[in-house]
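Predict both folds.
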Amino acid sequence: MTIDINIHKGGYVEEEIVITDIQFQVNSGELVGLIGSNGAGKSTTLQGMMGVLPIMDGHVSIGTYGYIPERPILYEYFTLWEHIDFYMRVAGKEASLTDRAHELLDIFKLDHKLHDYPTTFSKGMQQKVMLILAFLDNHSSYILDEPFMGLDPQAMRKLLTILDELKEQGASILMSTHALDTAEKICDHFILIDHGRILQQGTLTSLRLMVKQDKASLLDIFDTLLEENHHD
C-alpha cells in the first residue's frame, strides 16, 4: 500500500504551527529517508502521519503500520517476553506470531533475556526490543524514527536485511534518520525537511542535479540546500 501524506499544517498548540505543506508519497516496495536537522519537524511529521499530533489539518493514508519510536517505550514491570506477549494478545495473534517472535529474538540475540526487564538493558538492547515489536507482525507500512540509534554493527546488518525483506514483500517504509551515510546507500528516495517545510525531495541522482554536483554525498546535498534556503 502506498503511503500518501498531505498535511496542510500541524503542531502541538494552535498558536505554534510546527509543520506546513508536508506532501509526499512512499510507494509499495520503497524505502524513503526523511532527512533534517534537529528540530526540523521530522518527528512531528511522523506523529501527524500516525494521528497523534494534537493540531493537524490534512489527510493521511497509511494503512496498518509497524512503528519504531525515536526513544524506546518500555513498561517498567514487564519482562521482555511479557512485552512481546502483551503485543500478541492485544493483536489477537498469540498463536500465529509466537514463532516469529522467537525468530526475531534469535536474530537480535535476545533469546537469553526473555525473563529480564528491558528497563535494565543497555540503550542498544532496548532498541532491539523496539525492533522486535515493530517487525513482529506483517504490516503494509513501517514508520521508523532513528532506527539505528544505539545499535552495534551486527544488529545494524540484521536490521538492513529485514528492511530488504520487507521491501521485497511490498511494504512502504518511511525512515527518519541522522545516519546519512547509511541512508544514502539504502534509501530509494529522500525527503529533505527544514523549519517544518519540505526543502526538496527526490532520488540521490535527481538531488545531485538540483545542486549541480554529480558526485555529492547526501550530506553535501543537504548542506548546500540548507545554505541556499537560509539565504533566500
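Second protein follows, with its predicted C-alpha cells after the sequence.
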Amino acid sequence: MTSPAQIGRASASLPVVLSLGAFLALWAIVAAIVAEPTTMPGPLRVWTVLADEAASGRLLTNTGITLLRVVAAFVVAMGIGVALGLVLGRSHGTDRWLNPWLVILVNMPALVVTVLCYIWIGLNEVAAVAAVVINKVPLVTVMVREGARALRPDLDDLARIFRMPTGARLRHVVLPQMAPYIAGAARAGLSLIWKIVLVVEFLGRSSGVGFQIHLNFSMFRVAHILAYAFTFILVMLVIEYLVLRPLERHAGRWRQDGH
C-alpha cells in the first residue's frame, strides 16, 4: 500500500521528470531542424558517444581524475576559508587589514589565477590544485565571515561566565551556529570549484574531463564534448542532492529545534 509520504515524494519529483523530458524533447527538435550532427548532435547521438567512451574506460578514468582534483581543492579551500572567515568575523582589526586582499582576490578572474599558477609553479598537479584553491578561498572566507559576525553574543557571554575552554566553546557554541553558513559555503564553493577545475585542465593538464573537452574541441567533436560535460554535471548533481543538501538540512536543524 502506498503511503502518503511516498505519494508526496512522487508528486514532488513529477515536475522534475517532466521538465527534463521537455528539455530532451526540445534538444531533439532543435537537432532535427538544424540537421547537422557535427555541430548540433541530438540526444541519441550524444548517448551513443557516452556509451562508447564508457565502454573504452576513458570516461570513468577521466571523470575520476577530475573528481579527485575537485575533492582535493575543495578540502584545502574549505579548511583555509573556514579558518580565515572565523578569524575575520571575530576580529574587527584583522578584518580591516585583510578585507582589501579579499576584495582583490574575489574579483580576480579565475583564468588569470590559473595562468599565473602555471607560469610560477609549473604545469603540474600542485599548480592545478593551487589555482582552484586560490579562486575558492575568498568566497568561503566571505560567507563564513558573515556567519561569524552573526554569532549570538549572549551565548558567548554564557560561555565566558561558565569559563568554558576555548576548544569546548568552539565545538559547542561557535560551530553549531556557524554550521548553516559553512554548509552554504560548501554548496556554493563546490558549484564554483568543478567549473574552475575544468578550466585548469583545459589549459594545462593531460588528463581529466577538461582535457578531454580541449582534445575534442581541437577535433571539432561536439558530441564528445557534450557527453563528457553532461557526465560530470550528473556527478556533481548527485553529490549536491545526496550529500550537500542533506548535510545543510542537518546543519540548520538546531535552529528549528530551538524554536
